[in-house]
Task: structure prediction
Amino acid sequence: MQPSSRRPAGSPDIDHRPRGGVDRASRPPLYGKGLRALSISTVAAMALALGLVFFYAPLEAEQGFLQKIFYVHVPLAIVALCGFVLGGLLAIQHLRTRDPRWDMRSYVTIHMSLIFALGALITGSIWAKGSWGHWWVWSEPTLVSFLIVFLLYATYQPLRFAIEDPERQARYASVFAITAAAFVPMNFIAVRLSTAYLHPRVLGSTSNLPASMAFTFLVSLLAMALLFATLCKYELTAKHTRAQVRALRRRLIGEAPSTRGAGRRSAAPTLHHATTMSARSAGTPGL
Amino acid sequence: MTAALALGELPALPLHTAGKYVAGAYVVLFAIVLIYVAIMAIRLSRIERELGELLELSGEQPPEARKPDPLQRESTPA
Result:
């Protein structure tokens, strides 16, 4: 017989009510809120995009089947570049408010953009090999400029790691993120102004694509943006949960250093301050 | 410039040749997601372990220690 309660048999009956007089309104924001809906939307959008790419979009006249890489390479690159700019905007917010949660968001966004940019570089190289017969063409400004942006952001983590004081680390990282974010559109414009290029122009020229290809591309772009948002939200939720566990540990065993990870330098922002802050001022929205 | 033009005018690859490049590009995307999921799984298990330690510290038994053992119950004489 099933028990009347929805709790499965044998599950712990942990009292989830906050102790120490912390009411529901003053709880820290839940980063995991809406994560399930976002994940389902991402999976649906990715499945739709793949279906459109392989069963709906026509073969391109010049490149044939190889052109299908376009639907993964270009969205990866666009989302990565937009993520870098977003990281800069979030860093501005951090410098304005001095709230470390904005630094955390900026860090996670840039971190994820770097992974997407690496994906764009690898898929681009594969496409170049199939299309041009070379893995990399150094005389091509689009490729080299994207590599420069990637390498610029690759120094973000070592920069953070080099600074021990968390507050100074966050401040310097924000300044870096803003400067580098300003560099991204400048770089983009500079490449646009160059005359000799082999790499096809995509942004601003989607109207040249047939309607079915343009639609498939836009769905792929949306799916990639959703994937980016979902992974960022997962990362933020994980970091926030870990910070809460650490705060709980400190509360239970005092300020004594724990056996694992205490005093270890890290490139990732510390959310200890943010956790205590959010316990005092609730209602700050998540990413 | 001529080299670039020559590269740009390469004919389309046949399906059996282009297929491996397309597959490679999409495998890269799924590898990124899979690696990320694996990293998240490791992190989740670490958080779970830390929470178990904290539960022990707070005086409560961890969930697995409180699960009733069905074999033990069955072997208990009525």
